[in-house]
């Protein structure tokens, strides 16, 4: 192993905790190549799901996994996507940070990283420049390949100039595995406490960790990225957008409303993605509730002339 390779190896490991170690910009080797050392934690996340064969299951562990799936899916769709990527509503700096942390706990990297690549996707959707187009680069590339390749690890800084003025977000974006690590640790400790003080629940530290963190997070990850892969392949197209986005009710269900992706590419700035009452969009319902409570405001609507097919 040459000196350059060795330092690259060490930097890849440091980036497990400090995503900007060795400089946060575009790497010299910005090829579409899988960075195996860098993604060891991501592979570990998947392998740990097999721990279920050792720890077994209990209702409390499965319910924790489901609850963390739903809460974190909302943080991704409502905030990483509709707020940080599209500014489809407003909030204050406090709630902005709280939901950035919650989104970060979903292990989909930092809010600036997520928003910058997503904005890039909208700008170049289904062209060769699109980081995750299944029609250009195939299903697996759009689903997970792009995300583990050297070219797509750095945050695309020019796309998130608006967020870079918040030091707390820049910090969170840099140390993007800290919050997930703390969540995993808390789940383990909670399981230990329940094991000791509520033995009737039949759970344990290991079980709460495997279900609450590893299984919940892995399922959440794959559900989210179906929007990049399947939702550009399977479903109906109401609007003749220049990309191949689709509306898919099943994907909308598992992603709390993101499956109305053709609607979304047609008019991305709206807080709602289900444009008609029968297009179920749980994220939007929760956002409405939060706006009634005064936590967020200024939800951007879908104008009637935009909503009608063949408009725009
Ligand atoms: Zn898309
Ligand atoms: Zn979007």
pLDDT < 50 stretches: none
Ligands bound, unique = zinc ion
Q: Indicate the radius of gyration in whole angstroms.
A: 20 Å
Number of domains: 1
**Classification by helices and strands:** mainly alpha
Structural shape: globular
Strand content: under 5%
The spatial strand order of the largest sheet comes to 1-2
Number of helices: 15
Distance between the termini: 57 Å
User: Averaging pLDDT over every residue, what do you get?
Assistant: 93
Instruction: Describe the sheet with the most strands.
Output: 2 strands, antiparallel
Series of secondary-structure elements, N-terminal to C-terminal: HHHHEHHHHHHHHHHEH
Secondary structure: helix percent? 40-55%
Number of strands: 2
Summarize the structure.
The protein contains 15 helices and 2 strands. The chain is mostly helical and 312 residues long.
Describe this protein's structure.
The protein is an all-alpha fold and 312 residues long. It has one domain (3-307). 53% of the residues lie in helices and 1% in strands. It has 15 helices and 2 strands. It has helices spanning 3-14, 40-47, 52-55, 59-85, 93-104, 111-124, 134-137, 139-145, 167-174, 178-197, 205-225, 249-254, 261-266, 282-292, 304-307; strands spanning 90-91, 296-297. It has a two-stranded antiparallel ribbon. Helix 4 packs parallel to helix 11 and helix 10 runs antiparallel to helix 11. The longest helix is centred in the first third of the chain and has 27 residues, at 59-85. The chain is globular. One zinc ion binds at residues 81, 85-86, 118, 122, 264, 268.
């Amino acid at each position: 192993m040459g000196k350059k390779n060795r330092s690259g190896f060490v930097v890849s490991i440091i980036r497990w905790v400090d995503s900007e170690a060795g400089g946060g910009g575009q790497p010299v080797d910005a090829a579409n190549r899988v960075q195996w050392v860098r993604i060891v934690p991501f592979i570990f996340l998947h392998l740990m799901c097999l721990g279920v064969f050792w720890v077994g299951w209990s209702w409390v562990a499965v319910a924790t996994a489901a609850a963390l799936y739903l809460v974190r899916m909302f943080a991704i769709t409502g905030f990483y996507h509709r707020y940080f990527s599209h500014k489809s509503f407003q909030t204050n700096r406090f709630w902005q940070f709280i939901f950035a942390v919650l989104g970060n706990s979903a292990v989909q990297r930092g809010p600036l990283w997520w928003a910058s690549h997503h904005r890039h996707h909208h700008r170049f959707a289904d062209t060769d420049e699109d980081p995750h187009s299944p029609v250009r680069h195939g299903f697996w590339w759009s689903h997970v390949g792009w995300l583990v390749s050297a070219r797509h690890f750095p945050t695309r800084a020019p796309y998130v100039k608006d967020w870079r003025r918040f030091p707390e977000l820049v910090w969170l974006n840099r140390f993007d595995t800290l919050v997930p690590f703390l969540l995993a640790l808390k789940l383990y400790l909670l399981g230990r406490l329940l094991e000791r003080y509520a033995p009737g629940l039949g759970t344990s530290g290991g079980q709460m960790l495997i279900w609450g963190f590893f299984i919940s997070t892995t399922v959440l990850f794959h559900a989210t990225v179906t929007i990049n892969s399947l939702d550009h392949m399977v479903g109906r197209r109401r609007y003749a957008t220049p990309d191949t986005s689709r509306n898919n009710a099943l994907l909308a269900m598992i992603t709390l409303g993101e499956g109305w992706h053709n609607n979304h590419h047609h008019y991305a700035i709206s807080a709602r993605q289900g444009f008609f009452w029968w297009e179920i969009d749980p994220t939007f319902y929760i956002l409405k509730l939060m706006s009634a409570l005064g936590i967020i405001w200024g939800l951007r609507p879908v104008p009637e002339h935009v909503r009608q097919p063949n408009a725009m």
